[in-house]
């Protein structure tokens, strides 16, 4: 019998974050009181004015196809937000609306990569980057960062990884899973490498509005000379708590990249859902005060969670500047009882103490686990107590 699955599909790993939520949901359905630190989404309801816009759009009968690359209204709303927030100007044909930022990334990787091309990815990385790059036949080239340098990349190490086959660098600041924001000089170092080696920068800026302590966000395209090299990826999922409405977008003034990405989309999914697009217009053009309110709550939870982690002997964490994850070093427990690495550590936590966390392996580090603080302080408190107990058992 012929082989059924393609080689690409056989090699693709399922998303570990989605797998852990499934396992924790399964335990919950059996009546187990599971503390969930796995979530990659805000726990707030979508703001009311955004939900109203979605309802209105349905009642208006906007339930049909839209242009495959997204509605002009939404492209204009995206342009408005980038202009207002960052002074970055784009044209409607420089924007592609997709079914989430994940889909934007998928489209653009397929638009720019051929088998044999290489893409530099900085570890720890969001787990979908290497998988998506590999799916195109290109090669993900991982460049490690060190915890001592707060997971901030060293441009000299990035330089050493660049070859004549390198096509792009992926930048994700603030990062999932570390929450770390790259300082300006490091961003400039990466920009210089892009310039010298004629590379594109795929800048995933999905957490740009979830940055704490008033630190400024630097869009990669705003760096000198970088607008021509940057594919800016963003979306409404995290900022406006609307993950399920599945709207993301890319902006790039290399129109051929946007057009090729749009062609891929038009031959695969067609337009992202109509209602989600209407809701996203309201999110981007309506009042923005909910964004600040949610960010402030996330900041308090971050402080609460990191302070709690620091109190647990054996655990340590780099303070996240943004996003809603703490990337916790658990290497002190490697080799204790049945725990060889972070995957075993998360299994131990889930099965024995009913705390769901994501192992660091799929993010490029077996020494860490990822804890999401997109959950209430009472849940964080209880979850950390359980983790402390697990650590005492393992010590
Ligand atoms: C770094 C990063 N990029 C992209 C995404 C995808 O977001 P979306 O829901 O818009 O597809 C996520 C979601 O977890 C993320 O963490």
Features:
binds pyridoxal-5'-phosphate; about 400 residues; globular; Aspartate Aminotransferase, domain 2; four-stranded antiparallel beta sheet; alpha/beta; about 40% helix; Aspartate Aminotransferase, domain 1; 13 helices; 2 domains; seven-stranded mixed beta sheet
Describe the structure.
The chain is of the alpha/beta class and about 400 residues long. The protein folds into 2 domains: about 5-45 and about 290-395, Alpha-Beta Complex (Aspartate Aminotransferase, domain 1), CATH 3.90.1150.10; about 50-285, 3-Layer(aba) Sandwich (Aspartate Aminotransferase, domain 2), CATH 3.40.640. It is about 40% helix and about 15% strand. The chain has 13 helices and 13 strands. It has helices at about 5-10, 15-30, 50-60, 70-85, 100-110, 130-135, 155-160, 185-195, 255-265, 275-285, 290-310, 340-355, 375-395; strands spanning about 35, 95-100, 120-125, 140-145, 165-170, 200-205, 230-235, 250, 315, 325-330, 355, 360, 370. A 7-stranded mixed sheet has the order 2-8-7-6-5-3-4, sandwiched between helices. Strands 9-10-13-12 form a 4-stranded antiparallel sheet. A two-stranded parallel sheet has the order 1-11. Helix 8 (about 185-195) links the parallel strand 5 (about 165-170) and strand 6 (about 200-205). Helix 3 packs across helix 10 and helix 5 (about 100-110) packs across helix 9. About 50% of the residues are buried. Bound molecules: pyridoxal-5'-phosphate.
How widely separated are the two ends? 52 Å
**Order of strands across the widest beta sheet?**
2-8-7-6-5-3-4
Evaluate the radius of gyration: 21 Å
**Weakly predicted, low-confidence segments:** none
Name the average pLDDT: 96
Are any ligands bound, and if so which? pyridoxal-5'-phosphate
Strand content: 5-15%
Helix coverage percent: 40-55%
Q: Could you state the oligomeric state of the chains shown?
A: single chain
- What's the CATH H-level superfamily name of the largest domain? Type I PLP-dependent aspartate aminotransferase-like (Major domain)
**Given this structure, which CATH class of the largest domain is correct?**
Alpha Beta
Question: How many strands, which pairing sense, and closed or not: the largest β-sheet?
Answer: 7 strands, mixed
Q: Structural class of the secondary elements?
A: alpha/beta
CATH architecture of the largest domain: 3-Layer(aba) Sandwich
Query: How many helices in DSSP terms?
Result: 13
- Total domain count: 2
Topology as a string of helices (H) and strands (E): HHEHHEHEHEHEHEEEHHHEEHEEEH
What general form does the structure show? globular
